[in-house]
Amino acid sequence: MRYFIKLAYNGKDYFGWQIQPRQKSVQQTVEESISTILRQEIKLVGAGRTDTGVHSKIMFAHFDFDKTLPKDLAHRMNQFLPKDIVIYEILKVKDDAHARFDALSRTYHYLIRIGKDPFDYDYSWQIHQPLNIEKMNLAAEFLLGKQDFSSFAKIHTDVKTHICEVKSAFWTVSDNQLRFEITADRFLRNMVRSIVGTLVDAGREKISLAEFKTIIEKRDRKFASGSAPAQGLYLVGVEYPKSIYTNE
Q1: Among residues 51, 72, 122, 220, which one is catalytic?
Q2: Taking residues 131-153, what's their average pLDDT?
Q3: Which of 60, 114, 140, 217 could cross-link with 176 by S-S, CB 3.0 to 4.6 Å?
Q4: 2-102 adopts what CATH topology?
Q5: What is the pLDDT of residue 154?
């Protein structure tokens, strides 16, 4: 039988979600917890991979288990796991449900703090100059729709296509904090951080709106700006079709 785990984590002390040799990952930490409790080796398949230092307010992963799950499994895992990972719930799904491939969309937030804040430097990008938010929102409109995002993708990866469909992309402001929200059917490695870094250069008046549009059209990573720091990025939502869930 297949189950989804709904969880969240502070990525500060992890080398991303995915298991890596000789590095501490969220996936390995959760797998060790559930395997110990269930007394059976359990392998997780995540909804995606977050990079080193990136946070996740909502993440899903699936696993298979043929015996009866303890009803308090989530509670027991939370007692076992470190304080920077939490299990929200465990959901029964159909046997062919897939945490990665069945996702309809994913949503990320990126947080920027204008000015210095000693309590926020691990969780946002602190920028010490005003940004043109109106221009950044106008530039973000060029991201909408289905197109090739090679200009914002990590090079030398094994993906078959760089085509993604961005459904929404916009900035909001609250006091000295800026939040970028982007939703798409899929994301390429480093895509959001590369987009944010380039949008910030537009906000700094380093590139024009026309130049931002041209960067997308070039389909070449060397034309985009540097990536925004990892600590400001959060995976905040993964949408699935209701049909994957069971009533059990």
Answers
A1: 51
A2: 97
A3: 114
A4: Alpha-Beta Plaits (3.30.70)
A5: 82
